[in-house]
Amino acid sequence: MKKRHPNHRLVKIHRSYMVEEIAKLFGIHKNTVRGWVKAGLATSDDKRPMLILGHALVAFIQARRVKNKQTCQPGELYCVGCRAPKFPAGDMAEYSPVTEKFGNLTAICPDCNSIMNRRVSLAKLEQVCGEMEITVPQALRHIVESNKPTVNSDLK
Ligand SMILES: [Zn+2]
Q1: Is this model's pTM higher than 0.70 or not?
Q2: Which residues hold their Cβ within 5 A of ligand 1, which is an ion?
Q3: Disulfide engineering: 110 pairs with which of 37, 48, 82, 89, CB 3.0-4.6 Å?
Q4: CA 82 to ligand 1 centroid distance, Å
Q5: Distance set, CA 125 to CA 27, 48, 54, 102, 139 (Å)
Q6: Number of folded domains in the chain?
Q7: pLDDT under 50: residue ranges of the chain
């Protein structure tokens, strides 16, 4: 099934919606709408059933669409301060493992100097890094090396 963006034009900005109504309006699951609420979609108050104002819903969908477009390209990390993907200062990032299989890339935003983070799996580190020079803890270096495509082997 083709994944569709919820069409915000279906929303009437001057009315309030229940979670179920929004789900029906967009043909999506209620849990998806609840996920939006958790992700910051404003609700009218703490009363049950929860009501979501139309204009808040439109704003949320539009903001979300912009955000989805701004996925990081290779060599980029997302800066929360600038709300945009950025190439890190000096094209340098540091990998710190969370588990054996994935960890966090940390770098400095060149524009606002805040710390940028990107969650990556170790196996995809090579695809993600782009032009970045990634510092890896000594203990992991052999794993990263073994994931590198052997570029030179074909030339021999
Ligand atoms: Zn920034």
Answers
A1: no
A2: 79, 81-82, 109, 111-112
A3: 89
A4: 4
A5: 36, 45, 41, 9, 16
A6: 2
A7: 1-2, 152-156
